[in-house]
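Subject: sequence -> C-alpha cells, single chain

Hey, anyone have a minute? Need the predicted structure for the following. Not urgent.
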Amino acid sequence: MKPLCASVSAFVLGLALVLSCSDDSPGDADAAVCDCPAGEPPISAQRLVRETATANLPTGVSLAARACSRGIAISGFCELDPNAPFAQMASVDAGLNSSNGWQCRWRNDGVQATTGTATVVCLVPAE
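Reply:
Had a minute. Here:
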C-alpha cells in the first residue's frame, strides 16, 4: 500500500508542477527566461555564393577544384566545355573535398585537350 501511495503522491505533485508552470505569460514569476544565443538567420540568396575554377583537361585523369574564399562549402557541380567533343570524356568523381571546396575529376581518353570547370556553392556568414 505504501508504494502505491508514494507513486500516486509523486504523480499528483508532478502534475501540479507541470500545470503551475505551463502558463508562460511574460509577467508570471515562473515564466522561462531565454538567455540563449540568437539562432542562425534564415538562408537567403545573398548568402549563397558560387565560386568557379577552370582547368585544362589533357588526356589522362584530370582535376579541377575550387575552395570557398569565405564561408563553408555546401554543394557544387562540374561542367565541361560545351564546345568540346565529349565522346571520349568520363566523369571519375565529384564532391566536397577536405579544402572546404568542390572537386571534379575526369578521365579524358580522347586525343584532344578540353577544359572543365568546378563550381562550389558557399554559405557565407550573415552580416
